[in-house]
Amino acid sequence: MHIPDGFIPLWQCAIYYVILIIALYFASKWARQNLDEKRIPLLAVLAAGIFAIMSMNMPIPFGTSGHMVGGALVAIIFCAPEAAVLVFTVVLIIQALVFGDGGITALGANVLNMAIIGGYTGLYTFKALKGTLGIYGAAGVGAWLATVLAALACAIEMAIAGTFPANVGIPSMVLYHVFIGIIEAVLTVIVIMALDKFRPDLLVWNKNKISEGGQ
What are the structural domains of the chain? Predict the structure, then answer.
């Protein structure tokens, strides 16, 4: 799903960079207000995990690459897409500069797809469904949908840029990520189940439950 340099014209990259700058402004405000010594290590661990899962990718014909993302996971755990913006900006810069995965000119587009679209989709799907599907079911659906929509956005951006025609690029990117999203959903549920069992204090939606239990 990483868009490399040269796949999108610079004038379009500039638009995505404006979106990135605005998103980073709000993300930095969120971080100052919400990150403390207990949650900073969790954010760092998630960033390392996301770096690892995004490194396992496969080339996609008429697309870029297929891989798990993790934007929904970060947004759901912190109950904030802003957390995903911070994580993915750092991870994508390192991947682009050190490993040549993705591009610096396309950084804004990549953060838009994986962190902003992925994060907001995952979190608000989770919020909408947790009353009916429960925490784990809602997290799984949110992670799957976030992966698919991020891939769809990537394909649309490349179609607008003229890199791949929409009638082949969109089906190619989406089809691969429909199946990749299933793996991502399972991984997301496993991580949230582990946190819910061993460190429920790190999950925002558990705060009221913990305080009521006197912990």
Answer: 10-201 (1.10.1760.20)
